[in-house]
Design a protein that fits this description.
This protein is α/β, with parallel strands linked by helices. The chain contains 14 helices and 19 strands.
Length: 452
């Protein structure tokens, strides 16, 4: 089942599976129509088949068998059976660009890329941004189709321009529900039935307005915009802004009170263990200056800072603004202040006090990946280790002692010791993490190829 997809003269041999993108731009062209007439099997979502065969019904028998695309695996099995016949010609209709979060991936994995002749249409993301007159080379694009919407929500919290490809259970209302609290100033743009001259709608709403609505299919894409942030300049790399050139910033780059800030040596290892990235949610508990939360946000994660001091809340917001990132600041004391927060991927806990073991326990029970704790008191180390282990994490840790170069009169240098700090962390065992990932993956599926 091989096909040569191009030569120097542009000639090509016929591939047994032809994939046409449709639904977000111009109607099917002459080449697609010709392929449909010659096809022995046609597969597509109901709306694609109805558009290709208007007035006939998606399943009406004719010269071509037709499959309404639902669960993907059975459809691929039907294609495999069909390709075993002589002169089988399969046409697949998909939305927009089927190579962009679409069915091309599944087809290529099953039948090989050489079996495919792909003719893309306009991606729904490109069409949605075009309707607003906005560029999208700086957008983060997330697929929530058949997936847990939490990754999309976190991307929307962290980045100023996000496009979310929707699906059942992960539409505008579900996305908005994760943004109603702590998504200050976000605008949602809901693009429905893009490319359909009768039903297309592009609406601007607040998250509160979107969560209160019932949304019929097909919602094509949801854009989440933080219009308070300056537009990005002209770029050479597409996607979100490049990560920071450096991290573990000097304490002088943050507002803080009486040196109550996680020192950069400690912060460097803490960030390495937290592993913040786009799509993650990180808590910074007892945030103080918010330096850890800000650095996690600079690295692409959604960040929540919990701080009990009122002046600390203002300081965290000022530090986030100064570094051009968004941090959701919660004024309250842990563990009680954690009750209404979404479960995090990783947690940083700073400070000490009698409540520390209870705080670490509460965080460790809910963290999907890891908890990192910085503390100065030796007496608290066994309690924190026990709290991590008791919640099913594997505790590890180090004592960090550093001496910084400091000038002396006479153009000489001394070593200035910083206070020793214990950095403890607990990671969820890989089997448990895999089980959580498997539960999320089980949702992916069924009709992933039908929408992009």
């Amino acid at each position: 089942m091989s096909g040569v997809h191009g030569t120097g003269t542009g000639a090509r041999t016929a591939a047994p599976i032809r994939v046409f993108g449709t639904g977000t731009g111009e109607p099917l062209g002459p080449e697609a129509r010709k392929a449909l007439e010659a096809a022995t099997l046609v597969i597509g979502a109901r709306r694609h088949l109805e558009a290709a065969y208007p007035g006939t019904g998606a399943r009406e028998a004719g010269h071509a068998g037709r499959i309404v695309l639902g669960p993907l695996a059975p459809a691929l099995d039907r294609v495999a059976e069909h390709l075993a016949r002589d002169e089988a010609r399969v046409v697949v209709l998909a939305s927009g660009d089927p190579g962009f979060f679409g069915i091309v991936r599944a087809l290529a994995e099953r039948f090989g890329a050489d079996a495919l002749d792909v003719r893309p249409g306009a991606p729904s993301v490109a069409v949605a941004f075009a309707r607003l007159g906005l560029t999208w080379d700086d957008a983060v694009v997330v697929s929530a189709h058949g997936r847990d919407p939490r990754t999309a929500v976190h991307a929307c919290l962290a980045h100023p321009k996000v496009a979310v490809l929707t699906g059942p259970g992960a539409g505008p209302a579900e996305l908005a529900a994760g943004l109603v609290h702590g998504a200050g100033g976000r605008t949602l743009v809901v693009a429905t039935a893009l490319g359909d001259p009768r039903r297309e709608r592009v609406e601007r709403l607040t998250p509160a307005e979107a969560v209160a609505r019932d949304w019929p299919d097909p919602v094509s894409v949801v854009l989440c915009l933080d219009e308070s942030r300056a537009p990005s300049p002209a770029r050479t790399l597409a996607g979100p802004a490049a990560g920071p050139g450096r991290w573990a910033l000097e304490e002088s780059e943050f507002e803080h009170r009486d040196s109550m800030i996680t020192k950069f040596e400690v912060r460097a290892l803490a960030l390495a263990r937290l592993g913040p990235r786009t799509g993650d949610l990180v808590w910074d508990i007892g945030a103080g200056s918010g330096s850890v939360a800000v650095e996690c946000a600079r690295l692409g994660a959604a960040a929540v800072a919990v701080e009990k001091a009122a002046d600390g809340v203002g300081r965290i917001r000022a530090n986030a603004s100064a570094h051009g990132v968004y941090v959701d600041v919660v004024h309250g004391s842990a563990p009680a202040a954690l009750d209404d927060l979404a479960d995090p991927d990783a947690v940083f806990v700073g400070g000490g006090g009698r409540e520390l073991p209870a705080v670490v326990t509460a965080c460790a029970r809910r963290a999907r990946r890891t908890v990192v704790v910085a503390l100065a008191a030796l007496d608290r180390v066994p309690q924190v280790r026990a709290a991590l282990a008791g919640a099913g994490l594997e505790p590890e840790g180090v004592l960090l002692q550093s001496s910084r170069l400091a000038p002396l009169p006479g153009e000489v240098t001394r070593l200035a010791a910083t206070n020793p700090v214990f950095l403890l962390w607990g990671s969820r065992p890989s089997a448990q993490a895999g089980e959580r990932a498997g539960m999320a993956a089980a949702r992916v599926g069924a009709s992933e190829g039908a929408t992009q």
